[in-house]
Amino acid sequence: MSGDAAEQTDTQAAIMEATYRALCDHGYADLTIQAIADEFAKSKSLLYYHYDTKDEILVAFLSYMLDQFTVEDAIDTTDSPDDQLWSLIDNSLPPSPDPEQREFQVALFELRSQALSDEAYREQFTRADRFIKDTLADVLVAGIDDGTFRDVDVERTVELLATMLDGAMLRRTTITGDSTPATREALAQFIERQILAEE
Amino acid sequence: MSGDAAEQTDTQAAIMEATYRALCDHGYADLTIQAIADEFAKSKSLLYYHYDTKDEILVAFLSYMLDQFTVEDAIDTTDSPDDQLWSLIDNSLPPSPDPEQREFQVALFELRSQALSDEAYREQFTRADRFIKDTLADVLVAGIDDGTFRDVDVERTVELLATMLDGAMLRRTTITGDSTPATREALAQFIERQILAEE
């Protein structure tokens, strides 16, 4: 990488870090470019040079997260397929999220609701969904191959799991009471009865 | 009902009708009290007399819908329990929504995302969720009693179904492509394998 390109990558990474912190602190509705700039150690003009609106920064942030995130961040492929499946569930639906995870989940749902009317957000969440579904499918296929799982219909099972994880996110952020334990129990029962090979 | 009370009820019903039409036409973000007033045949000052903000009207609208909506609107209790279950699913996730249903679903999701930060919205959606879960539970119990369904764990099965319906709403409105057929297929497979009594 040339010096210029390396510097550009550093700048982008620093902007994305600042965006993450500002988003956790302020949430989407109250976020301003100024709030992101306040978290950004380098010059504010550099930020304005790259982006015109907070939505431009946030879409770039989603895209950056998706570029950086790999299967290895979500699962340990040396784990058994059922542990891998639970790692994916834990990743979307942590059993006891810390305050920062909670803030980020709420912010992420706020960004997701922008996808209702903004094609650029929709594109990033469609990419994220494709990644989650592909990863779930790979784990299911590995588990079918090694006999951990039954010979399930992979496509329908992935659809059910992905829809459950999306529903869990919506319930957790918009319904009173902590729905996470009940959702995890419902998922556990489904996995036990429909996915895990019979003893 | 006294003449005054009847008139008040008529006025409320007319405001709610106007709110429904304005919400379908404009969506949440672009909705104004003026747009609701334009759909309202009676005097605009009457509308302002009852409500100060569009959020006040919209929360009242959600509450009104929930007050009006009964189990009999969602299901025909003389149907078989499996038909009742599908009526509930069709109600949340129509197989081929018409344009008005689509508009209303998008608007309803916009209102739901207000529940992230607004307790009054959250309260109404929590009420709606309670209604859906209670109705699902009643249908499951009826089906277990008459032998249509297996002796499923009602609480966990209701949780899975309610989470699926919420996830379906989120996917349908924020991910590119029509996810409804795939979600319905995943639900059909779950119902067949986990809920319907074995032949």
Any descriptors?
about 0% strand, elongated, homodimer, about 200 residues
Describe the SSE topology.
The structure is a homodimer of 199-residue chains.
Chain A: H1 3-26, H2 33-39, H3 44-50, H4 54-68, H5 71-74, H6 81-92, H7 99-114, H8 119-145, H9 154-174, H10 180-195
What report would you give on this structure?
- Two copies of one chain form a homodimer.
- Chain A has 199 residues and is mainly α.
- Helices cover 75% and strands 0% of the residues of chain A.
- The longest helix of chain A has 27 residues.
- Chains A and B meet through α7, α8, α9 and α10 of A and α7, α8, α9 and α10 of B.
Quick summary:
The first copy, chain A, is 75% helix and 0% strand. The first copy, chain A, contains ten helices and no strands.
